[in-house]
Amino acid sequence: MPAHFDRYFELCKPKVVSLIVFTAIVGMFLATPGWPPLSALLAGTIGIGLAASSAAAINHLLDQRIDAIMVRTRNRPLPTGGLKTSQVLIFALTLCLVAMLILFLLVNTLTAVLTFFSLIGYAIIYTVWLKRATPQNIVIGGAAGAAPPVLGWAAVTGSVDPGALLLFLIIFVWTPPHFWALAIHRRLDYAAVDIPMLPVTHGVEFTRWHILFYTVLLVIVTTLPYLTGMSGLLYLAGVSVLNAGFLWYATRMVVDRDTSVTDVLPMDTFNYSVVYLMLLFVFLLADHYLQNFV
Fold it and tell me: What DSSP string describes 84-151?
């Protein structure tokens, strides 16, 4: 096993990348009524996964100063000295190069180009500029995080169709309530490094209401696959239950003033939002094949 393997693995943010790759894979399956071509499925998954890992490593590199201050991130490989800046840079660039070669040579040019711009969008535009420029950073920067199902779709079809854009919209609207819940929990960290997250600049109460507003918008957006005929009753039933849960958490964050739970509830909401997105895409996938094979 290579030296420092665990530290390089941590650079890739495996939990985040797993969710990215999962939504990309579902996008591949939703793009075709049958099974996606095995070559596109395998090469696309590897290429997108490596690109996402590269973006995560670049994020570690560019944020190492503030990571050393924040409680949540101070034990990452760069702040602790577990890896050198040069090692992380070479690792990130190697992953990026391999990812682009796989996507260009084994998938298609559109997927490679979209993946590259998504990588730049998160690793450079969001990390270097948006995160520090505006309290709406996660709303604008969420476009990069919402791209994976579009990338998966393009890997199979070589195009970006309305169905892919609808998947993009779902993740785009899901991102603010998901991340703002975490930001409330870690607001002191962000304040300590002068990152203008919404709870820092506008307060926790304001952020709670924004989480509720975006959750209501998410409920509307996530019914669109059914309303447009992209999905059927199985998806509608599943997403309705998921939306009821998300609304319950978001509403509690607004109305609950019990100090014994106000610090716990944001992380509960954040954790639920991760499960929510995973299950939503599971329902999309299950409904897709139910409609096509029954």
Answer: -HHHHHHHHHHHHHHHHHHIIIII-HHHHHHHHHHHHIIIIIIIIIIHHH-TTHHHHHHHHHT-HHHH
Of 209, 205, 201, 202, which Cα lies nearest the Cα of 177?
209
Torsion angles phi and psi, residue 213, rounded to 5:
-60, -45
The pLDDT assigned to 262 comes to: 53
pTM score = 0.93
pLDDT of residue 293: 66
What is the Cα–Cα distance from 270 to 195, expressed in whole angstroms?
19
Closest by CA position to 20, among listed 141, 150, 130? 150
Q: Please, are residues 175 and 138 in contact by the beta-carbon 8 Å criterion? A: yes
Q: What is the pLDDT of residue 260?
A: 45
| Closest of 274, 218, 210, 262 to residue 19, by C-alpha | 274
Residue recorded with tokens 């979209």: 114
Cβ burial of 114 (10 Å; 0-12, 13-18, 19+) is buried
The residues, ordered by sequence, that sit 6+ positions from 167 with a Cβ below 8 Å of its Cβ are 23, 26, 27, 30, 149, 150, 153, 284
d(CA 287, CA 230): 9
What is residue 145's predicted lDDT score, i.e. its pLDDT? 87
CB atoms within 10 A of CB 271: 14
List the chain residues with pLDDT less than 70. Answer: 1-4, 257-262, 293-294
Residue with tokens 């954790």: 271
CA pair distance 273, 239, nearest whole angstrom: 13
Backbone region of residue 287 per phi and psi (left: phi > 0; alpha: psi in -120 to 50; beta: other values): alpha
Tokens, residue 119:
């990588």
Q: Please name the helix (run of DSSP H) or strand (run of DSSP E) that holds residue 175, with its range, or none.
A: helix 162-185
